[in-house]
Write a structure and sequence with these properties.
Order of helices and strands: HHHEHHEH
Largest sheet: 2 strands, parallel
Strand content: under 5%
Mean pLDDT: 93
Helix content: 55-70%
Radius of gyration: 19 Å
Number of domains: 1
Low-confidence stretches: none
Length: 203
């Protein structure tokens, strides 16, 4: 049921994307897949996480006008909304494959969705990329390199554990031993109907 979605393939895709020319502005190999294919949304999620990561770095600058930082913050809001929308689409696509599976009476409810775990793997790949770059710097002392190497090892361990947990969840869900629900993010700050600073200004 989920043979095309091993966590190892997802993490490999994340890693390969960082080396792809034009990424993340340009899409990757799954951009044109049907919208009911989880890979379409796995790529979309990773692309917006990558754009978000770069924008977060820009927003920390101290040598640019405040207007530039405001533009960064607005871009961050937009990328974050699209990233979260993609997480929900991943879950919808995965749960559609589970539509015929009846969870057992003693099936456990998993508090985190598979889409959310996939999102965390994407973010982990960005942390790993950034930390790996720190270990390759030539303008810092040995203590900095050693510290970053230790952090990189811990990040790789954390990603491996998370990938294993994702595989376990999908395997158990396919067998009816576990299940999860889509928990909508309901991001209120981007919605002019729900953010009081926006709907009061428009009143």
């Amino acid at each position: 049921m989920f043979q095309d979605l091993p966590a190892a393939a997802i993490t490999q895709f994340h890693e390969e994307s960082h080396a792809r020319p034009g990424w993340p502005q340009a899409g990757g190999p799954h951009a044109d897949k049907p919208v009911d294919n989880p890979w379409h949304w796995i790529e979309t999620n990773h692309r917006f996480n990558s754009l978000l990561w770069a924008e977060e770095d820009l927003a920390r600058r101290k040598d640019v006008p405040e207007s530039a930082i405001a533009a960064n913050k607005r871009a961050i809001d937009g990328f974050n909304q699209k990233r979260n929308d993609a997480v929900e689409k991943i879950d919808e696509a995965l749960l559609s494959r589970l539509a015929t599976v009846q969870p057992a009476a003693n099936a456990r409810l998993h508090s985190e969705t598979a889409g959310s775990m996939t999102d965390r793997l994407s973010i982990m790949s960005l942390k790993i990329k950034a930390m790996r770059e720190q270990t390759l710097r030539t303008d810092v002392d040995a203590a900095h390199i050693e510290s970053c190497q230790a952090k990189l090892a811990k990040l790789l361990e954390q990603r491996g554990d998370l990938a294993g947990c994702l595989d376990t969840l999908l395997t158990e869900a396919a067998a009816g031993r576990a299940y999860y629900k889509i928990y909508r993010q309901f991001k209120m700050y981007n919605d002019p109907r729900l953010n009081p600073q926006l709907y009061k200004a428009g009143a």
